Amino acid sequence: MASFRILTHPQHGTRAVKIGWSWPAFFFGMFWALYKRMWLLAGSLFGFIVLSSVFIPATMEGQLISNILFLGLNLTISLKGNQWYASLLETQGYQEQAQVSARNPDDALAVHANSQKGSAADIRDHEQGAHSQDQDPVGGQRDGRETERERKDGRHDGDDDENGDGGGAGGKGSGSTSGTFIG
Question: How far apart are CA 22 and CA 44, in angstroms?
């Protein structure tokens, strides 16, 4: 399985870019760069092809030098091409969302979409859990005004009181308190 970077753009959607080696970049160099709309890389490769055909002599030694140079160039593009492509997407406004393992880019996008659905469900569950914490033990909803009124009157349990004395200074609850501390 390969690792993919998931990049999203508000208008252009989501793309998966493989991390590491790129076989299409190795075999199709300039055409791969054109397909990925990496115009500067494609132009550089074309320029390299033209310059090497002009300046390297058409002899056996020249062919060997040319083949070694092209092999080195293709190895470099294969190793760095996906990284350059991800950087290009980031300059166009894409933002990296995650890294996932998958067999191909389509599977990587599906894995990311499923994880997003899962995290949305986790958020919903968390929000529902937060709403259930707002209920008092009897089962009724606690009103925020009632708790504020209880604090003003000194009838709250003092969990969040700085002094820990169970009530405000001089309030009705400023005497000794008894109860069970749950913490």
Answer: 18
